[in-house]
Amino acid sequence: MKQLRVTLAQLNPTLGDFEGNLKKAIEALKTAEERGSDLLIFPELFLPGYPPEDLMLRLSFLRENRRYLLELASHTKSCEVTVLVGFIDSDEDAYNAAAVLKRGEVLGVYRKMFLPNYGVFDERRYFKPGEELLVLKMGDVKIGVTICEDIWNPVEPSASLSLGEGVHLVANLSASPYHVGKPRLRKEYLSMKAYDYHTAIAYCNMVGGQDELVFDGGSIVVDASGEVISYGKLFEEEIITVDLDLDENLRVSLLDPRRRYMRSQNYPVKIVDVGGLRRKSSHFDPLIHPIPKREEEMFRALVTGVRDYVRKNGFEKVVIGLSGGMDSSLVAVIATEALGKENVKGVLMPSMYTSKSSLEDAQKLAENLGIETFIIPITDVFRSYLDALKEVFAGKEPDITEENIQARIRGNYLMALSNKFGWLVLTTGNKSEMATGYATLYGDMAGGFAVIKDVYKTDVYRIGRWYNEWKGREIIPENVFVKPPSAELRPGQTDQEKLPPYEILDEILKLYIEEGLDPEEIALKGFDKKMVVEVTEMVRKNEYKRKQAAIGTKISTRAFGKDWRMPITNRFREPL
Q1: β-strands 424-427, 3-10 pairing
Q2: Positions of E strands within 103-232
């Protein structure tokens, strides 16, 4: 029986923390060796961290990456397990690569062949594509090495590895960013890929946050019939070990002979003999962790994004302006789950327009979460602004100017607390607001990290409802869910005065931003033409605001930030 024991090191590296990433790698190596594994797989670019972006342009960064690769290799001297680890290979150019480590040496290097250059990816700016396949030989077992996008390409290099080289297993080192629904999509895709090529797949995905991106883990092992043997946890570090029966490959090929008639491209191939399979005296039972429901999936992604952004950037505590509304309530909940209640500070900044119920809701939320709060009114400061500006504003009626002054006073308060105590300001604007410009520059947009920047308002409510249900009690007060959303910057103000109902607005925005439909196409789906034009114009006109907004966790298929690269100066108008 060809039984291969594979260990997947689903870990959370920190970009540029070579020492910390090496320590994680050494611990995983010890675990894999203790478990009698034949193969240990790390995520893509694990040693330097991913994505390194313009750090790639610094030779000192590339040298450190090489130095720590050799240091990790030295720790394999007394180990029998073969290691695949992601690093940056460089000679005349730079390559996204995987090193084969064993017996204290670098036995071989695979260079990623397919470099993604869409969405959040910009790999062709930094890397040259590889041109050669790499196959590991373990006795009678052959293992093809791939990196992330390689496995997403519909044909190569999977076809050449399976059909041309007859590998039993395709090992994939991955750093696949999360968006809503991605775990299920990835699981189904890899299952079908294994079935199509009659080749087992071991896919090791990174976990953790890096600036806007969140990597969800969900590492997976699939046999040649497409059956999922093991599925890792989402948003958690985990060392996964699986015993894989590779005789299944032949059985599947005999029962389903389609691959006999398939053809592949003739790439050059390097074969590295790493020795035979190890003897096993035990068996590792596979674990298949469930994929959570949509709201939980989004919530855990947001928690991961906040936790890693705060911790990896050296902050300890965060501060949030609590308005008693849904957005700030959800941000406070996420921050508390990510960092602990002792590290979250809430600030209530009432004006003459703030309702009693909003103050009560904010205070009740803080009590339920157990976070410390401060009450710093803005009324007197606002009046002093009006007094200072009264001669300049003489003859002008109050308008959005006075509303924005209030928001900017609050932004100043929060930034003052940040400066004085070193707290990171978390902004509370949602994607619906960011899209339409329903936010104030240097006011409620002021801060270091925009937690729900990529969450539509309707999803903010859904996640909040799920959270209360998950906790089994009312953390976010019920009144927050049922009262009309309002910035409370003037008497009787509600969001819906300037925006369509969020249920309609969000659907229009999704079609326009994430699906790329033109206004005409959106209107054909049953939306009012005038409303569609107004919404899409708001998106266009407020590009300048979004360019100055804090970064935030990406959870949609197209987020404002790396995904969205619209010009500010732009006279194009889409016809309707």
Answers
A1: unpaired
A2: 105-111, 133-138, 141-147, 169-174, 200-205, 207-210, 213-216, 220-222, 228-231
Residues in CB range of 400: below 8 A, 6 or more apart: none
204 catalytic per annotation? no
141 SS3 class: strand
The per-residue pLDDT for range 324-336, each reduced to its tens digit, is: 999 999 999 999 9
Q: Quick check: 93 and 57 in contact, CB under 8 A?
A: no
Q: Is 79 a catalytic residue?
A: no
Give the C-alpha separation, 161 to 152, whole Å: 14
The per-residue DSSP string of 117-130 comes to -STT--GGGT-PPP
Give the end-to-end CA distance of the chain in Å, rounded to a whole number.
65
Name the DSSP letter for residue 44. Answer: T
pLDDT band at 261 (very low <50, low <70, confident <90, very high): low
**Catalytic residue selected from 64, 79, 102, 148:** 148
SS3 category, 576: coil
CB atoms within 10 A of CB 354: 20
Can 44 be counted among the known catalytic residues?
A: yes
Which of 112, 187, 545, 554 is catalytic? The answer is 112
How many residues are there in the chain? 576
Query: What band does 425 get if pLDDT is binned at 50, 70 and 90?
Result: very high
CA distance 561 to 449: 13
User: Phi and psi for 247 in degrees, rounded to 5?
Assistant: -65, -20
Select which of 24, 33, 44, 204 is catalytic: 44
HSE-CB at 359 with a 13 A cutoff on CA atoms is 12
Closest CA to 335 of 419, 206, 424: 424
Residue whose tokens read 């050494």: 26
